[in-house]
């Protein structure tokens, strides 16, 4: 009901004087309505202005709601990330445990596998020293190559496992590139010549900071791979300065690598579509070792290739200042083993028998035993002393060959030259052997290397 109608109903029965008063009241109500409308219009205009208090209040309320919503979203996201990080950490720890377990298994398995392999190689060496026909010598050569392939496979798998588990810690130092490449030329020159390939080495004069053993392994694998898959032409190995570093390029004129295979060639057991090359079994592990070693050293490796034209592997290294020259060390020429008395302690019976046969062929006298007590019983008397000792590191019952070496030295009152043999490549074993003042030879033993080292030690003593 409007104000006019209400006034009309109230004032209807009134007299004329009352009618005037009613009209005055109506005008006042209309005036109040106009004032109210004006005030409402002003309030509405003021609330729509950005700087007004009410607008700021509304904006603050809206922003508070938005901040609260975004905060809740961010909190949920952070919790999700925490759960994801926890899962990733657990997965990483599980992978590391698996890698360590795999490495321990491969280490133990390689030790057990290298023991009979060592005996086979020693026996084969003794066989090759006998008078044999051409056909028999050819068979001996085939067996030797087969044993070498098995040995390379076992050692390479163990190296890959150690790199994956992070057990290989590089020891970078100043290395002259020419020294690394000189070994490459000496090792692969005859192989390239047999295939009718040119092997060109341009070492330069640069020095780099790297682990010399790992760097040699990388370059050797790259050169070996290049020669293996090159049929005509040649292989170039060149070191060049590039900016603040040094780049070693291994370039071949082989068949090249298709774009789709350029990542696959670094995977284990990828043989480029061929199981063997030039009669050699292609293991497909060389470039896998290269990739892992390069990553461990923090170097970089690039590949450029054109199908039908060849490939280029480029290894980039940090340059460094040359190492101060060292005085040359005069090495005595090896002498004969004839008449030498050798104490041999070897856990594996087949390897022990093979070593005894080898020393017999070399005109040396070997006192061979499988453990410490057996050696003591075999010794001719308290005055008999060996000229050199060859001791297996791991003996039966947890005994160590170093203990027998120490006992023999104590009994005879001087440091008898000693060689410790083992299939265990761990740093702990190497440190223990070095600390005892012994030479370390890893199994399988190369007879020529053993004979040269023994002759050198006997000459020094």
From TrEMBL:
Protein EC: 2.7.13.3
Domain of life according to the entry: Bacteria
GO cellular component, one term: plasma membrane
Enzyme class: transferase
Every Histidine kinase domain range: 108-321
One family name in Pfam for this protein: HisKA
One GO molecular-function entry: phosphorelay sensor kinase activity
Gene3D superfamilies reported for this sequence: 1.10.287.130, 3.40.50.2300, Histidine kinase-like ATPase, C-terminal domain
Residues the record lists as 4-aspartylphosphate modifications: 392
Residues of the Response regulatory domain: 341-458
Classification via PROSITE patterns: HIS_KIN, RESPONSE_REGULATORY
Transmembrane segments annotated in the record for this chain: none
Substrates-to-products reaction catalysed: ATP + protein L-histidine = ADP + protein N-phospho-L-histidine
Keywords assigned by UniProt, alphabetized: Kinase, Phosphoprotein, Transferase
PANTHER family, A to Z: HISTIDINE KINASE, TWO-COMPONENT HISTIDINE PROTEIN KINASE
UniProt-recorded name of the protein: histidine kinase
Originating organism: Methylobacterium oryzihabitans
